[in-house]
Model the fold of this input.
Amino acid sequence: MNLFAQHYPEHIQTLNQRVAEIVSREGLAGLIIHSGRPQRQFLDDMDYPFKVNPQFKAWLPIIDNPHCWLLVNGTDKPTLLFYRPVDFWHKVADLPDAFWCDHFNIHVLTNADAVRDFLPKDLEAWSYIGEHVEYALEVGLTSFNPSAVLNYLHFHRTIKTDYELECMREANRIAVTGHLAAKNAFYHGACEFDIQQAYLSAVGQTENEMPYGNIIALNENAAILHYTGLARQNPQHRHSFLIDAGAQFHGYASDITRTYSFEKNLFDELVMQMDNSQRAIIDMMAPNVSYVDLHLACHEQIAQLLLDFKLASGDKQGLIEQKITGAFFPHGLGHMLGLQVHDMGGFLSDDIGTHIASPDAHPFLRCTRTLAANQVLTIEPGLYIIDSLLSELKQDKRQSQVNWDAVALLRDFGGIRIEDNIIVHDTHNENMTRDAGLS
Ligand code: GLY
Ligand code: MN
Ligand code: MN
Done:
């Protein structure tokens, strides 16, 4: 039996316990979880790529089949309504025959509206969890995505089961094969578009299967935080390569970034120093540590880098307080990872939905939680030459603290980010990305 099959019964048991607890708390009979419906493009007869409801794929690895439903109450064996129409235009899903099947009563839906025939009689006591509220209303449901239920599920799902951790290790292994192929393509002179093809081919997944749009950035494009341009032409000179790309396994994401210098030079040294800083932050992760404190510790690391590489002068605290580190490192340290690349629950301090906002000075931080065992997070410090942010420093006395000649030397390289996926354990941290063979 493979590891996924081995851990799956305990996963289902955990999900059932969570549902039992929240339906009892909210006085509900159960939850009706919808995989989704295809979304039609405007003025067209084509659909957007299908993206499954994350609350659906939490239960089982069906990620490409709309019109499926789960009926769960935490006590009875869950029911799966599996959509399999007669259709000669499209490939229909194969009847499931997998390690998870024994954990469901499975009924086949040959047309989407037949769901009505399988819904419970006391429908008003069940809550719909899904995106298509109007359709749910049409089939007779009256309660939709109650925030008490979603807060509860989001809070608890940040603690991964052993099955989920195994899926995420595999998502890391797959992405690492892509990263190694992409690095090779970069050093052999490929353009961004060709590096993307090398990546997708190595991971064996389509662009639509990626958990987010890959960032494949040469030279100054590395300074555009969400760059997805995929230039077909090579730049005249090759300086640097930033790749932020993941993969999926059974619906779980990996999210990995590396930065490379084409030649041995100051930028290459900066990349190595950033790598050391990133590992130092990872070493600080442990249960009961605040992620906000890790983010603040990262600003200290960035301040030290600015001083060591003579990009700025002054003292570390001053560089942080005056938001000079923030101009070079404007995003958050990282985020929860799981069914979604920016997994839900990063701001919740309890399961009734109490929100901890990010500090005013760090609005882009995506996680303010205190860490706990079996959480999975990214750690992704960065340093970029973003002219629109650096020009703000030129407007006041901070300009004298920045070494503009050193900034100019780095501009062609764009920026650096190093991102790994970490499991917090009671006694140690597990770096799934490095364990999968990416240095
Ligand atoms: N790839 C998106 C992120 O790193 O958050
Ligand atoms: Mn990330
Ligand atoms: Mn990323």
Observations:
- The chain is about 35% helix and 15% strand.
